[in-house]
Design brief:
The chain is of the alpha/beta class. It has a single domain, classed as Alpha-Beta Complex (Maf protein), CATH 3.90.950. It is 28% helix and 26% strand. It contains five helices and seven strands. The protein has a seven-stranded mixed sheet with strand order 2-1-3-4-5-6-7. Helix 1 links the parallel strand 1 and strand 2. Helix 1 packs across helix 5 and helix 4 crosses helix 5.
């Protein structure tokens, strides 16, 4: 199995770390939140693409550690809304908005639309860097459609309104292991592990 590689997630989000740790089970990887993350001036995620945000974040925070640091940028893309919410997924209804408010805004934008205009996909880009040098950048997406009302209580973000036809459920109705298997973040992280191992 070789030596265990330690990876640091450039985030203060323990929920996101748990999701990645579940994906790393059985691999020679130990994942931790970046120590002192909150004390480093925050990286401004203001690039127009997911890839630039993820790479910028990984490069920026990797200067504070010797080991590999990884960061993801992910979000929901609705082509009929010119790609919105897109890179603004977390700030779609304003910087302090709650999940419910972001979902309400999205449903309002799609009100009265049927079929193709409700097509959507989640995208995730993960970048890994070491001491200011990029080590890997991987991406994945998962296609679905936007429901007319939220379904399910699991997951977070737009999961309750993202219908996944392959399983006939919303992302918020999936069991954690199902979500890890099919989600954009799960697919991208498995690619990252292949590259690093």
């Amino acid at each position: 199995m070789g030596e265990v590689k330690r990876l640091y997630l450039a985030s203060g989000n323990a929920g996101k770390l748990r999701e990645f740790q579940a994906l790393a089970t059985g691999h020679a990887l130990e994942l931790q939140l970046l120590p002192g993350f909150a004390s480093v001036p925050e990286f401004e995620e203001n690039a127009p693409t997911f890839a630039e945000n993820a790479a910028g974040k990984a490069l920026y925070y990797s200067r504070h550690r010797g080991e590999v640091v990884f960061a993801d940028d992910s979000g929901l893309v609705v082509p009929a809304l010119d790609g919105a919410p897109g890179v603004l997924s977390a700030r779609y209804a304003g910087p302090r908005a709650r999940n419910e408010e972001r979902i309400a805004k999205l449903l309002a934008e799609l009100r009265g639309k049927r079929g193709a205009p409700r097509a959507a996909y989640f995208v995730c880009i993960i970048a890994a860097a070491q001491q200011g040098r990029a080590v890997a950048i991987v991406s994945a997406r998962v296609d679905g459609e936007i429901l007319e009302a939220p379904h399910g209580t699991g997951g977070f973000g737009y999961d309750p309104v993202f219908f996944f036809p392959q399983l006939g459920k919303s992302f918020a109705e999936l069991q954690p292991e199902e979500k890890n298997q099919f989600s954009h973040r799960g697919k991208a992280f498995r690619r990252l592990m292949e590259v690093l191992e």
